[in-house]
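Notes from hallway chat w/ T.B., transcribed later so I don't forget. T.B. wanted the structure written out for a chain they're using in a teaching module, and asked if we could keep both sequence and structure tokens in one place. Agreed to drop them here.
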Amino acid sequence: MSIKDHALLVSLSVNKPQMTQKDSKATADAELANNAHGAGQYRKDLYPKSLVQPINLIESQARAYIESTTYPWGRGETMLPSVRFMQFAERIGKYELEFDQAVTAFLNNWSNVMMHAQASQGGLFDPSAYPDLTDLRSAFRFKINYRPITDVTDFRVAMQEEELAALRQQVEEATKESMNAVLRAPLERLKEVVSRLHEVTGRTERVAIDKKTGRTEVRAPIFRDSVCENIAEEINLLHDFAEILPDNIIALAKTVIDTTPHPQQLRDDPAKRKEVNIQTTALLASINSMLED
């Protein structure tokens, strides 16, 4: 089936005002003090990092979410399974609202922002470096973009056969390059989470002293539920792309999920840990072989 029927491309655009500025006087003073000329420049933070941190954090969280639920496509775009669109749009909408709220809080606290900036910059503080609040507000922007995956049949223009052939080749080559990245992404991400499972199942029991009794105890290694949960999340995403991924990747995903035990089994059963460690060794070899093909 066509990839266009099962996925779309998404990209996140986040605009923020200029956060740093070259200070010519500080640069000149540093060059004079060190007998240097054109060796570099001094840039100062216009806004205290602690006060813009909530805005930056929301952007980072949004980008991390997009990365976790899509596969890379190219030029800042990633490929989202169509079946996840409503869930994705709702989650991104919440990030957009939180971003706007953080920006509003930042601007409403403007006098405190300027006070902190002046305190941190000392003699380098220049109030003329800051834009009007209305202009500053318009400099913040959080926008998610969606577009269909294009192929040569989407072009509805009159062309000579030679021109159309050149366009077809260009589109096909670009699509092939992006699809190669898409086919690698699930394998690379599976390798990452399976490697983590392999690592934790290879751990040995710990010797610890009970603080109350003073007795030496042998305890099982620490296993976090997230080790197995992360595998399940990657498999779920992969299954949402099942219509466009090769059968061997789908089969590998099934083997991975069949191999992954409940976290409590890893805590309670040393024999199970050993078994899973052997199985993940074989899985990693298979993944590496597929990545090399």
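Follow-up for T.B.: The mean pLDDT is 83. Might be a good example for the class.
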